[in-house]
Structure to design on (164 residues):
C-alpha cells in the first residue's frame, strides 16, 4: 500500500454528494487518499487531532469541504501547515454563498486555498492536489498533462445544434 498522500474531510455525510467529485479525481489519478467525516462543531477534538497529526502522517494536502458556517477548512489550517484546500458546499438556504464567504475570508496569516462552490470546486480541489503532488512526481505530471490534452480535444470536438 502506498502511504496516504491526501486527506479528504467533510463536515457531514450530507457533503458527500459534492465531495465525491474530489474523490473521483483522486481515484482517476491513482492518488492514495483517505476520506472521512470530521465535523468542526460536532467533533472539535477529533478535528484538532486530525489536523495536528496530518504532517507527521505524511499528508501532502488536505481537501476540506463544508457548508453553511463552514469553519472546518480554516480551523484545520489553524492547526497544521499542510496545505488546506477548501471546498464550499452548497447550503440549503443560501446556496453556498455563505460557505464560500466562510472559507475564502481567512484573515492574513493562515491561508486556505478556496475553490468554487459545489461539484466543480470539489473536482478542482483534487486537481490542484494532483498538481501539488506532481511537483515531485514526473509520472503524475505526465498524467495531468494528458488529462489537459484530453480536455482540449473534447472541447475542440464540441458541436452546436446550429451547425448540425
Ligand atoms: C456543515 O453543516 C456540513 O459541512 C454540512 O454542509 C452542513 C449541514 O450538515 P448536516 O445537517 O446535513 O449534517 O457542518
Amino acid at each position: 500500500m502506498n502511504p496516504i498522500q491526501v486527506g479528504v474531510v467533510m463536515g457531514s455525510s450530507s457533503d458527500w454528494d459534492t465531495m465525491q467529485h474530489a474523490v473521483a479525481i483522486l481515484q482517476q489519478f491513482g492518488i492514495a487518499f483517505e476520506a472521512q467525516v470530521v465535523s468542526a462543531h460536532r467533533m472539535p477534538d477529533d478535528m484538532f487531532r486530525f489536523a495536528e497529526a496530518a504532517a507527521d502522517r505524511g499528508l501532502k494536502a488536505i481537501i476540506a469541504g463544508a457548508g453553511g458556517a463552514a469553519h472546518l477548512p480554516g480551523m484545520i489550517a489553524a492547526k497544521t501547515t499542510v496545505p488546506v484546500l477548501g471546498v464550499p458546499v452548497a447550503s440549503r438556504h443560501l446556496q453556498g454563498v455563505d460557505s464560500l464567504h466562510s472559507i475564502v475570508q481567512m484573515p492574513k496569516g493562515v491561508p486556505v486555498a478556496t475553490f468554487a462552490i459545489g461539484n466543480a470546486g470539489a473536482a478542482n480541489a483534487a486537481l490542484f492536489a494532483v498538481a501539488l503532488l506532481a511537483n515531485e512526481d514526473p509520472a503524475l505530471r505526465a498524467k495531468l498533462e494528458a488529462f489537459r490534452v484530453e480536455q482540449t480535444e473534447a472541447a475542440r470536438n464540441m458541436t452546436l445544434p446550429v451547425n448540425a
